[in-house]
Amino acid sequence: MKESVIVLRELTKRYAKQTAVDGLNLTVYRGEIFGLLGPNGAGKTTTILMLLGLTEPTSGYAEVCGMNATRNPIDVKRKVGYLPDNVGFYDYMSGLDNLVLIGRLNGLGDTDAQERANKLLDDVGLAENKDKKAGAYSRGMKQRLGLAEVLIKQPEVIILDEPTLGIDPSGVREFLTLIQSLSKQQGITVLLSSHHLHHVQQVCDRVGLFVDGKLLANGTIDSLARSLFDEGGHITTVVVREAAAEKESWLTALLQQVPGVTAVAIEGNEFIVKATENNTALVVSELVNAGQAIEEVRKKSYGLDDIYQRYFEHHEEPI
Ligand SMILES: Nc1ncnc2c1ncn2[C@@H]1O[C@H](COP(=O)(O)OP(=O)(O)OP(=O)(O)O)[C@@H](O)[C@H]1O
What we know:
The protein is an alpha/beta fold.
């Protein structure tokens, strides 16, 4: 059975007349990478602060690793590593020395702190630069060092706020792959808040869409696409050499039997097949077996940007 690691129940935060977080209900399970998505001011940071016990909810509660975050902020902080969007280091100290210091502040002895810091610098790809001063690190290197700092206390949960901000595309890919492999290998639960839909889509098992302090929807990208685009999340268009007008009905019936297919349309030379799963190969092979000469195949899967657009199309500033 899946183990709940983060549980939010009717979590609400009001500042004077402004409701920043409004009756939030959400469960995140062990080992999951969950993406928090939403426009500026949606309430993501306020939710994170309540999870860390850094601000008190007006009502409702946030539970992390079985503990109430408001009542046990210190115990929660031992289990949770938080990487803010702008991490600060001692710039005059090397990456290694920064990390050893954090290890010691978290209760490790000198030898353990040295050993663990070296291992982590290797894990995050900073071994070659460990003796360089942190002040001379690039933005991407600082994020890696920040991740190593978060990991040195062996957290069960890590919370990342805009972790890819200002990193170049190849750095982003490497950083996200690193987070994904750490989560999968060590069963770490990750909460990732970001405006970058493609980054979220790349690594998150599930996403939650926030607006005005409310969670509008949450689920896998496929399930959100299915609920929004009721014909299904995947569209395959197969262009054949000859228009299929007279054969229409039997070919439609044939394609409708392919697993996941929800709708079939024929427009001139094109078969347009909508499905709940990516079944392009099966669609194509059915048509080949039915004697159709295929000229072109086009695939479209609804991604997070389609979903986001559909949810927020009436919102002023989608990203
Ligand atoms: N200390 C505060 N006092 C008053 N209002 C606040 C305070 N902190 C946040 N808010 C308000 O609460 C709402 C939610 O803010 P929050 O920072 O949680 O949003 P966010 O989703 O993290 O936005 P962003 O993506 O811009 O970081 C905003 O309208 C903000 O102005």
